[in-house]
Specification:
Order of helices and strands of chain A: HEEEHEEE
Number of strands of chain B: 0
Structural class of chain A: alpha+beta
Helix content of chain B: over 70%
Number of helices of chain B: 8
Largest interface: A-B, 26 and 28 residues
Radius of gyration of chain B: 17 Å
Strand content of chain B: under 5%
Distance between the termini of chain B: 24 Å
Helix content of chain A: 10-25%
Largest sheet of chain A: 5 strands, mixed, barrel
Shape of chain A: elongated
Radius of gyration of chain A: 20 Å
Oligomer: heterodimer
Number of strands of chain A: 6
Order of helices and strands of chain B: HHHHHHHH
Shape of chain B: elongated
Largest sheet of chain B: none
């Protein structure tokens, strides 16, 4: 057997993986959110979109409307959340990180509603 | 051109399929799971064939291809269908993701390479793949590996 083609194949596959890994390192594991700027919002839910790939709510913060990205519906469900629990008008506390790309968007690490905190990661 | 593309993405997102992908409990989840299985079939199927070609196993490559290529083709069809569902959920955002552009480019490279192989070698592919196909096998291996890698990167960019 000639080993050179195998070597070639290995190099090609490695090159693709290394380029992907390089791109991965250039960004946070949790997409484009600044983990160094954790902050908290307490506000009534303005709108709720219980949908894939992630549930979204909008809330008021410092005079503006913020869009919060929560977990996928199945995970929300698994952690004990449901659409009725965080429906519009419900007061919630969100702890999360601002988007580095979209203004007034945050990714929520946890949500507190009716005195109970749910982890979303 | 750019506007037509953005309009098409919006239309897909606003379509019944987009609505179904976002609001049905299982559609997105099932599409997501099948998209992983499809990626395994495409890359695994085509890689065993490409590697046989790279190793100059002409006859064995042709024999391998009889099983491996239909498997990869089935996987590719599965990817197009499930990928459309995943894209429809958030088409406006995903369609303009740099990793998605890269993925489309690698798919185009893979398909162009496939067309060139068939145009150049035709029937020979069924009996004994010629050594002249090795460069195409290398491009194929690179294109489909990079397609999967770029696809996974969409979630991180």
């Amino acid at each position: 057997m000639n080993p050179r083609p195998l070597l070639l194949a290995a190099i090609l596959v490695s090159a693709a993986l290394v380029s992907a890994a390089g791109a991965a390192l250039a960004h946070h594991g949790w997409g484009s959110y600044d983990a160094g700027k954790k902050f908290t919002i307490t506000s009534p839910v303005e709108t709720l979109a219980w949908q894939n790939p992630h549930v979204h709510v909008t809330v008021k913060h410092e005079g503006g409307t913020w869009e919060a990205v929560l977990a996928p519906p199945f995970r929300m469900d698994a952690r004990g959340l449901n659409p009725d629990l965080i429906k519009a008008g419900t007061s919630v506390t969100l702890e999360g990180y601002p988007s580095t790309r979209t203004e007034r968007e945050l990714r929520a690490e946890r949500i507190t509603v009716a005195g109970k905190t749910y982890e979303l990661r | 051109m750019g506007e037509v593309y953005v309009e098409a993405l919006r239309a897909l997102e606003d379509s019944g399929l987009g609505h179904l992908a976002r609001h049905s409990a299982w559609t997105f989840t099932i599409a997501n799971v099948l998209h992983v299985i499809g990626a395994a079939l495409v890359l695994g199927g085509i890689a065993v064939f490409d590697i046989q070609v790279l190793l100059r196993r002409g006859w064995l490559a042709a024999q391998t291809g009889r099983v491996a290529i239909p498997l990869a083709a089935f996987g590719l069809a599965l990817q197009v269908l499930t990928g459309l569902v995943l894209l429809a959920a958030e088409a406006s955002a995903l369609g303009r993701n740099p990793a998605f552009y890269a993925k489309l480019a690698f798919i185009a490279l893979g398909l162009l390479n496939l067309a060139l192989v068939h145009a150049r070698f035709r029937g020979a592919l069924r009996t004994e793949v010629p050594d002249g196909a090795r460069a195409f096998a290398a491009v194929s291996l690179l294109a489909w590996t990079a397609t999967v890698a770029a696809g996974r990167m969409i979630a991180y960019l």
